[in-house]
Amino acid sequence: MLNPMLIEDAVRAALKEDLGRAGDITSQAIIPATAMAKAVIASRQAGVIAGIEFARATFAILDPHLKFEVLVGDGQAVAPGVEVARISGPARGLLSTERVALNYLGRLSGIASLTAKFVAAIAHTEAKIADTRKTTPGLRAFEKYAVRCGGGMNHRFGLDDAVLIKDNHIAVAGGVAAALRAAKAGVGHLVKIEIEVDDLLQLAEVIAEGADVVLLDNMSLTQLREAVKMVGGKMFCEASGNVTLATVKDIAETGVDIISSGALTHSAPVLDLGLDIHISKAV
Fold first, then answer.
1. Is the whole-model pTM more than 0.90?
2. pLDDT tens per residue, range 158-172
3. CA-CA-CA-CA torsion for 224, 227, 231, 237, nearest 10 degrees?
4. Which residues are catalytic?
5. Mind listing the domains of the chain with CATH numbers?
6. What is the Cα–Cα distance from 187 to 102, expressed in whole angstroms?
7. How far is residue 54's CA from residue 51's CA, in Å, rounded to a whole number?
């Protein structure tokens, strides 16, 4: 679950951005203050829902008189035409919050939907799908939450919660062994250490020195199979680099434990969700 305070802060910022200095001047000009309406948020394509609490918070923050009924929860799959939520109450508030609610819901549902496709493609293996730090600035916690809604798992959230020694670190540190030794000496015993390797010679150095996870970067399928064999279960094997829906099945079948893909968050298309409104009464 996400911290509700994080959701509220994000929604308030989005509403301030959208409402600007004077609020929704269109609705204020043409919709009577007493007008009431009902609306339905429905899927226009198949996918997995994520971000329903963002939609709920959007309506509640702008107008507490709006009632929000959840019909489909986060992590649930939907077909085209399925009703996800119903909203009723003051028409002005409903119209003024529509875009912010759909922006969050569509973006996060798109990530969950793409993740679910990756997860399904490797379901016959023991491998797990993970995200990366290639996220939208300011939205990382939310986008990584959406990955979990789609059945994936989270990689590190930032630079401060795990050590990941990449090729540039190795170059500056003076080699694989030197980088690993420095990392072990510099962090606490509860901090995991992962190191990226580009070839099997580097992998042999990692095996000799020891690490928690080895990231096998942009390796061929043949190299991945040999790498898994060399590691022999001594550490987790993570495959990364150019992972797509077309390649992920073959990668998983090499025996790696984790497959990470930045595409889950940086290239997921928005799930098409629509809000249809109906005037119910005016008082």
1. yes
2. 999 999 999 999 999
3. -30
4. 99, 134, 166, 196, 217
5. 4-112+269-282 (3.90.1170.20), 119-266 (3.20.20.70)
6. 42
7. 5
